Protein 1
Amino acid sequence: MKKYCLHLLLFLATVITTTLAGAEWIYGSSFLSGQMNFEQFKQGFWFSVPFLGFLTTHEFGHYFMAKIRKVRVTLPYYIPGWLGIFMSIGTFGAFIRIKDYVTSKKDYFDIGIAGPLAGFVVAVVTLILGFIYMPGDEFVYRIHPEYHQYNGNYRELLNSPGDIGLETITLGKSLLYRFLESTFGDPALLPHPYELSHYPLILAGFLGLLFTAINLLPIGQLDGGHILYALIGRKAFHVVSPVALVLLVAYSGLGIFSPYDFWLARGSEQWIWPLQFLFYVYFVYLCFSKIFTHRTRNWVLALSVVFGQLLLVKYFPGISGYPGFLAFGFLLGRVLGVYHPPTIDNEPLGAGRILLGWLAMLIFVVCFIPYPIA
């Protein structure tokens, strides 16, 4: 019984933290500000229940498939992640720990693909329900009563938020999100893009698609890495995986620095920019530090990527990536590793698994969001 207590306590803590986070997203204010009461806190369950439903389904997809393949695993460990200082989703995710050494390519494939496919279904259903049961504009006016002074046309107000000093949050839309929105969403009820984050089912489904895409990145030991490794084999995967990592980091850091930053720095800032730039170059190196065994090659790769970013910004000044993905680049490149463990049993997958594998890669494409939250 004791071994289950930690899992249960972490789950209950994550229920509380995700409910807090959900209430903060709905009402647009921090719980620590003292402006949120218990009734408002309870509204956060509209976010925490579907989002934890997605997370739990994903992890238990891995868990039950591991049991079927006779691989020993732990129950999911949930990681509560509410800080109260800034907006969060209340969790850093969940994971199961594999207790056996997996030697079969089929085992890696089956365990790896079960989680994303199961979670994907929950995310899609959540998003569809969010669009079908979307409330009218009165929902936005309850959260923002100050919008009433604009003659009920808050959308016109938000089309120029900078004019009145509003801070706004937008959710990026993947290909699948756009399809579901146009298919199930009522155009008369769809809110202004700046207000979408207040809708808990929409936010939970959006995050479900986003985390499905991140898990399906074809890099290292992510679920997508296990799937692609089984599909194309070790030799080809050990080319594709580092290339995918380099592209992810190169895109993420695009536009952070410009060649003109150094020329425009004045006064005390003339030393800040070079130091920040050097730190960034070292960070990129850390992301690539396990691609080659020789440190010099990793440095050359890092410097080449940074130089390429500066060159693109020089000739395309408006170009930019999404810096939020840099954390995943560091986690993959420095912590989890970019390569896949070798397998002893490399029996071919069969037509059914191959079809499912490429379907998972297609799901990655239609769920990926270049600019998730801005």
Protein 2
Amino acid sequence: MRHISLKLLSIYTKVKKYLHNTLWIMGDKITNLGVGFLVTVVVARYLGPEDFGIFSYAISVAALFAAAGHMGLSGLVVREIVKKPDERGVTLGTTLGLKFIGMALGYTLLLVYAIAYEGVTSIEFTVLAIAGAVLLVRPFDIIDFWFQAFVQARYVTYARLTGLAVSSVLKLLFVFLGFSVVYFVAANLIQAIAIAIAFLFVYKIKSSLKVAEWSFSWSKAKELFSQGWVIYLGSIFAVIYLKVDQVMLRWFEGSEAVGIYAVAAQLSEAWYFVPVAIVASFFPKLIKLKEENPEQFNKRLQQLFDLLFILALGVAVVMTFLSEWVITLFFGAYYIDSASVLVIHIWAAIFIFMRAAFSKWILIENALVFSLITQGAGALINVALNYFFIPSFGVQGAAYATLISYAFASFFSLLIYSKTRPVFIMMLKSIFILFRYSIIKVFG
């Protein structure tokens, strides 16, 4: 017993830094989930399915065009900060410049879409223009990369909670005052501004590298973009099959259908922070393990897949059985149709959770082209399935399209490419984890 205790203590000592960082990320996400969810419940009940659908539609369209500013730089920048300490100022300054160029382009295209499809006199144009303005302050999120590299998630948590507090108070105030949907979209913009200011504040206090030392370099931009362009295009495809369902629902079924679907999607997607938090904390360690001990790297990666699958399965089962109760309790009878959507949509978590680890494997193994192929195929499949499923099955059709496209892009497609087949096997072993451990128990 003493030997086991000492072994557990030894393991804890080794992963203490990463565990604490994960807990900070989880705490941030759980607080955002809890507070954000309760505020969303109040707002959704106040606005009703149609206006809440307009709100959700605007946020989804903004997310689609925000992909232009992703630049595929997240994991790459963390890696550059860790591996090249002498170039940190250039890395941050160049990343900021690239993301601002991309976001500005994305906002311009969003306005063109809003003018062409909605018309400048419509309320939809107004909410799209406001929601899209968030893109112009998003580049400062690169400060998050800095704290990720040094495993200091608590400072990111401080900044995000500041924005959450501002936005939540404003939305509740708008409900009390009886304001229209436009004001609730504006609250999201104010939240983004507050987060950007908070990021700059905590960075100034905690970083020895001043913002004034950041610099933009075209050669660094070419270097980063040459490594990240594949992930960049892949991220655009990823956002497409994450948000295009709500946009296409608006085209085919109208705003009320978007509101019904958005409630289910939010309850489902709210859990996606779990794998992101876990994987983000262990990413720097995985990079080192790959270089120093490949065998240990594979072992840890399998354990990570196992953990992510168990968590996803638990979430999917619980939400499936409690879907109607959860929807009715929080959102009321107006949104009861969301329950049948949630029962389908929640099972996409199985593939999303494991994809979080696979996305880091792609960076470590430099299999970036495969990321583009899988994300592109997933996006095309999702758009095609939405096109055929929504007219036939309504909001449930959009949920089926999402589930099928996620399954293909994040799991089945790995079987096609020889380099990713070992990862497919790892994921498959995770899916059969209960059977694996039963065999070990019987024969071990």
Protein 3
Amino acid sequence: MKNDYTNNKFRELLDKLQQESWQLELLISGFAIFGLFTSLEPLALLHQEAIALESYTKYLYIVAALSCKVLIINLIIHVLLRGLWIGAIGLRYVSGDIEYDSLNYKKRFTNYLKKKVGSFDKYIGTLENYCSILFAVTFLYLFYIISFFIIQFIILLVGAFFIESGIFPGMVGYSLFGIFCFIFLFLSFIVFIDFVTLGYFKKKEWTSFLYFPLYKVFSVITLSFLYRPLVYNFLDNKFGRKLLFILFPVYLIAFYASSVNNVRSNYILSKSYSTKNYISNINYVNSLEKGQYIRRAAIQSEIISNPYLKVFIPFRKNIEDIVLKQNPSLKPKKDIRGYSSNFFSSNKKDALKDSVQLKYLNAFKKTYRLKIDNLNIETDFLITKTNNQLGLQTIIPLKEIIEGKHLLKISRFITSKKTKKLENEKVIEIPFWYYKQ
């Protein structure tokens, strides 16, 4: 009978647990805050790795990082309020209730304080309510975040089906995807309106009739059936509703504050990649820090003492798209890109043939153009891995290059969407100094 919610003993047990739960709340909050703070850096590194490897798990790490930050904000507020609550209880043990008359204030202030501040026990009770509700709403907001990203994931999944799967012709796939997005986002907006209005569509007869099927479908899509009891327990309590909506602007302010930085110059600004006037360590292999990955291109060092320059271009899916668009003869009968099981590997045999790879590398060489200053460079790319990144590498001899500062310019030919003609697009410019040993 312990888990029978209609049994009086079970209710007495719940009443006892809810009175003593503050100890567990503090213990869990302390460990959780420490664990969440230490997990932010590994999640950022994993996110960078997923971006470099073009893995869809990058979206998972975004959700995880955002969830951690929301939990940290809520739990820190909870610990501060719970600490204040413990301090107030200790003070009550020593001093009892507030005796306004003993303060000898004038009647105007005494009456005002009695009305606005009230009993000290009321203050302790209010703190207790905030702490208890805040601990529960922390995990409720976590479910909201997961639900929001599930909606985004469904759109990405459907987009991959209509556009990237190759089942539908180009314009047909885009059209079907556009129709789906319009309908799905419109229905999602209706569910959101019902949420922010605390169930407006559930309160009228004709809207409840129309909204009920949509409500059941989105309950499954957003996994709200897992946390629905928490939601309705908040909504039937005025205090809970108030706290639920107060926290949202707190999150916005906290996230905005975390994005604020001090700009010290109008002209000297930090960038994420090298230009002719800026050096970024992400474009020099020997300067890469732990968790950093090459984005556009990299050379071995910013100061070159060897008689050669090693250029590495990390592979991206869009690179192959550009190459295949300019070389239709290279297009395979079946595109094997994407997630697949290694159990059936026969589809990859043709792609691994040396003759096929050589044609691909020759096409890549024609697509990408390298210059040192204004000198065109002949390239011969090979497939390799640098810093655990798959990419293409070429070695440039520097015998004809004089000592001093130089600029490596990398560009590529792309097919213009407007004119359908080839255009030369700048990829990156990497400065370096060359001094012979």
